[in-house]
Amino acid sequence: xxxxxxxxxxxxxxxxxxxxxxxxxxxxxxxxxxxxxxxxxxxxxxxxxxxxxxxxxxxxxxxxxxxxxxxxxxxxxxxxxxxxxxxxxxxxxxxxxxxxxxxxxxxxxxxxxxxxxxxxxxxxxxxxxxxxxxxxxxxxxxxxxxxxxxxxxxxxxxxxxxxxxxxxxxxxxxxxxxxxxxxxxxxxxxxxxxxxxxxxxxxxxxxxxxxxxxxxxxxxxxxxxxxxxxxxxxxxxxxxxxxxxxxxxxxxxxxxxxxxxxxxxxxxxxxxxxxxxxxxxxxxx
Amino acid sequence: xxxxxxxxxxxxxxxxxxxxxxxxxxxxxxxxxxxxxxxxxxxxxxxxxxxxxxxxxxxxxxxxxxxxxxxxxxxxxxxxxxxxxxxxxxxxxxxxxxxxxxxxxxxxxxxxxxxxxxxxxxxxxxxxxxxxxxxxxxxxxxxxxxxxxxxxxxxxxxxxxxxxxxxxxxxxxxxxxxxxxxxxxxxxxxxxxxxxxxxxxxxxxxxxxxxxxxxxxxxxxxxxxxxxxxxxxxxxxxxxxxxxxxxxxxxxxxxxxxxxxxxxxxxxxxxxxxxxxxxxxxxx
Amino acid sequence: xxxxxxxxxxxxxxxxxxxxxxxxxxxxxxxxxxxxxxxxxxxxxxxxxxxxxxxxxxxxxxxxxxxxxxxxxxxxxxxxxxxxxxxxxxxxxxxxxxxxxxxxxxxxxxxxxxxxxxxxxxxxxxxxxxxxxxxxxxxxxxxxxxxxxxxxxxxxxxxxxxxxxxxxxxxxxxxxxxxxxxxxxxxxxxxxxxxxxxxxxxxxxxxxxxxxxxxxxxxxxxxxxxxxxxxxxxxxxxxxxxxxxxxxxxxxxxxxx
Lengths: 285, 284, 257
Prior knowledge:
The complex is a heterotrimer.
Chain A: H1 3-40, H2 46-50, H3 63-94, H4 99-113, H5 116-130, H6 137-161, H7 165-173, H8 178-207, H9 210-214, H10 235-243, H11 249-282
Helix pairs in contact in A: 1-11, 3-6, 3-8, 3-10, 4-6, 5-6, 6-8, 7-8, 8-11, 10-11
Chain B: H1 2-33, H2 36-41, E1 45-46, E2 53-54, H3 57-88, H4 91-106, H5 109-125, H6 136-160, H7 164-172, H8 177-188, H9 190-206, H10 209-214, H11 232-241, H12 249-283
Antiparallel strand pairs in B: 1-2
Chain C: E1 9-20, E2 23-34, E3 38-42, H1 49-55, E4 66-74, E5 77-78, H2 86-92, E6 93-96, H3 107-117, H4 123-136, H5 140-143, H6 156-168, E7 174-178, H7 186-199, E8 204-208, H8 212-218, E9 221-226, E10 229-235, H9 236-241, H10 246-252
Parallel strand pairs in C: 3-8, 3-9, 6-7, 7-8
Antiparallel strand pairs in C: 1-2, 1-4, 4-5, 9-10
């Protein structure tokens, strides 16, 4: 066999290996989803969605957790979206290449890499204790908002960066000031990217468990929260609680909770991917 | 308007200041009672037993053990996938497979924990004798699955950024795709790939729910992946679920552990940021 | 070339030096441009002609490391004075860019944008202005039935005429054009050139071009730049038939550049 033939065979083999590795990830995903569905599907019914937590697995449902998740979702979005977009605009359109901007940049890169549990410690000390919010929805939402802020800022910046400079120049050339240019031209042109980033960030917040455990969110809640100062629990915490139960019957509850949690997560991610693809097709510079 | 925007940007700085302040002020009280030397060298961690020990080593070893298992698994897989998708795979395949891989990264980590505990561990117990119900191995492997898409997608971006002319130069001399990938493209994209590996490492170190659920909560200075271990993050979670009075030394241990974790991930992130900056300048 | 009285001078540069960081891109440039004429800036790439054009509406303000010495006078006023509002200035001086850069919005909104940012809300006035501007830029007949269509759906030549209409909507007295036809096909180019000839009646036009035939066809006066120097500035006829400097001669005849 010539060396060229050997090389061709090696090349082919690596191709198959690469395909196998790629498919492995997908197969794990499928194994994983089917396992969860098999364990939890029987639990998912109307009672499961509308029942309160209980020490008897057959009766325990996710109603308060679902309500808590929705509360947290809404309030976190309300806090994080305006601040995140505003900061993203500042980073990308105003603070260009100064010492200060460089410092902000390094800081942002680091924040994006801080483990979520550390945000929990921050929330515990600042929101729960110093500001006296207690283990309330408000404290949880503030903590998660800080957690997803870097994600929103980074994706906002990416979206703004994709808007070609010629658009800004055209607008300046017509006598628009910086803010008018951003508001009328740059933001509308980048809205798709920004919204995609926000949805992904929110979906991340919904799946977070550790920081909420650390701020002391309850796992056993017997009422539906009615205001931002109420105590709460969320779906992933409810799942975590059930996983830790000694009675194996609770594993089914956990799987049922996971099904609902994944449905929400996949729905949000699906919307984000759809928007991204649509946007990429629609706008071609 | 500019001022309003700037205030929003400054919130990011305040967050950092807040994190540093909270972590260090609480640990300061901790280190008034426990010497830094003991903290770093004592081989036992038992803050709530009657005989108290505050050595971070067992938690650190637990963290590193699960992290290394994840990395050994995920780094070769992730980079191979990246090469496959960027150099081999048909465009259509790539278009559909990438969002699917991204789903892996979107799954909440508590769900991965459940998977490790109820599927992977029982499965592995059939093959590996002496595998504990809570063990570092399953937690590490599942964590690996979680970080594969992170490595593959960041690495693929780096491979993609390699100028086409380099590729054509190699092909023009009769290289196969494999030779081109390993001799030309991979070295040219090395800094981007290193960044992806470091970020994945930092992510694994800070990962909480998988290890809390599947690796257990027993501070254990060991390198045996079959054993139950506790990571820094798992300790913080378990301490937080218990009823710990504020201002007690037990409460402060959470922050001392948090500081260790923060310093660790901060270093990793700074290194990756530094490499990324240098890399950008090279291509401009 | 005739001497202009102060009143006749529409645009003027006096002892202008421009730097980008350490690099000097314009050296001691003096020029005076008469109202209602077309002036062409020609010269090889990197000679500073585009930079010079952009000093007249201060688009260089956004370039990193930009610094200038000397004065730019528009309608008798130094436009780099502190009290000058650049936004006001740019309403008076329209600009058309090298590549067509319509906003990713409808045709109508593109032209109406300038009025909108001035806070004009009168619908009838806006509609009239849009129509008038599109007619002036010879685009009206082609787009009058689908003003709601995205500007990005137009052809390159149409897009560029839309950009001209967009600038005209603000009723400027000066139009700066930075190689407006360089990205267009020959037919679109000739449409733009005809248009420039028409617009001369009402506007003072300064155009940067790479294309010497184009400069010869459309301009009254031509300025030749080389390595940041204004080498020669005279009536176009004279520059193209009997230039004073040898360098100009070489460039015109295609011996370099």
